[in-house]
Amino acid sequence: TCAGFIMGMVDMHDMLVSKGLIIEQWCTPQDVTLDQLIQATLDYMVTQPDKLDSGAASMVANALYKTFHCR
After folding, report:
1. What percent of the chain has pLDDT over 90?
2. Rounded distance, CA 49 to CA 56, Å?
3. What residues contact residue 57 under an 8 Å CB cut-off, 6+ apart?
4. pTM assigned to the model
5. Which of 13, 40, 66, 68 reaches 20 to 30 Å from 48, CA-CA?
């Protein structure tokens, strides 16, 4: 499902960051919900229709980066 894919992206990102293999690309709050992650992705798709042809992983990563940008 789309929800599973988004959660998998977040889990993979967090695992790679924890192992020092990548730097944080986005910073989700501890209490973020799956619904919020899905909504961030949907909002990105609506506001960036020109990006809909990009791969799913790229689209989700860009959506999370834009919504949960690290400070």
Report:
1. 87
2. 13
3. 9
4. 0.87
5. 13
